[in-house]
Write a structure and sequence with these properties.
With 229 residues, this protein is an alpha/beta fold. The chain is 41% helix and 17% strand. It has two domains: 80 residues, 3-Layer(aba) Sandwich (Rossmann fold); 130 residues, 2-Layer Sandwich (Alpha-Beta Plaits). Helix 5 packs antiparallel against helix 6. The C terminus is likely disordered.
């Protein structure tokens, strides 16, 4: 938001104010003590924390919803007084798994149930699956043998310098790359022409045993015969 937008919308009759919400005086000015709900959607983590803590101190009954970037920021914000924290990192992961399950022809109703289960548990199930390479979903009998993990491309590894299609990860190795993180950006469903570079973080989906056996394709440690790659 900027001052020009505030002036324009105020001229239209919108009840809009401009100020630093991390300052107690600003929250007092907007009468946060009597508000029912507060949505915090700025990008500064430190300022978000100050806003949540100050608003909670002024209004113990206030319902606070926060948008943040990373999973690690959820718990601290909850401790400061936020009731709901939506992490962009989580939502990206949820979208990735929706696309993966759709690719494997999992029924839409089951996918929707899976997403509800994740969100109902505060995304805890998804966090465990990504950190521990556990089951990628809890749909009984649907994909219990499948898992997901993040593999970092090492310099000189099999995929280094190869395109997604040339590496034949899915056709020959049974691995599906659903996203690649590079330079702080997450690229969902990368194009077949995508060329891997050292440092790329590939989000890989497949059978858990296969993922373990094929990790050398990304980390460059050894090939299938155990010979250094």
């Amino acid at each position: 938001m900027n001052p020009d937008t505030v002036r324009r919308e105020r001229a239209k009759g919108e009840p809009i104010l401009y100020g630093d919400a991390s300052q107690a005086a600003v929250l007092e000015h907007i009468n946060v003590a009597k508000a029912r709900i507060l949505a915090v959607v700025i990008s500064d983590p430190a300022a978000i924390g100050r806003i949540v803590a100050t608003a909670r101190a002024h209004n113990p009954a206030l319902h606070i919803v926060v948008r943040t970037r990373f999973v690690a920021e959820i718990e601290p914000l909850m401790q400061l007084g936020a009731q709901e924290v939506v992490a962009e990192e989580y939502e990206t992961s949820v979208e990735m798994f929706i696309r993966v399950l759709s690719t494997y022809l999992v029924p839409k109703a089951d996918i929707e149930r899976f997403v509800r289960e994740i969100r109902a548990e505060g995304y805890g199930m998804l966090r465990r699956s990504m950190l521990n390479t556990a089951d990628a979903c809890s749909l009984e009998g649907t994909c219990s043998s499948f898992g997901a993990t993040v593999l970092t491309v090492a310099s000189g590894a099999f995929v280094d310098g190869k395109s997604l299609v040339a590496s034949r990860l899915r056709k020959e190795h049974g691995l599906t790359v659903v996203a690649v993180q590079r330079g702080g950006k997450t690229h969902l469903n990368p194009d077949p022409a995508w060329v891997f570079e050292p440092g790329d973080r590939a989000h890989v989906f497949g059978e858990q045993d296969v993922i373990s056996d094929k990790a050398w394709l990304f980390n460059g440690a050894t090939d299938e015969s155990g010979v250094a790659a």
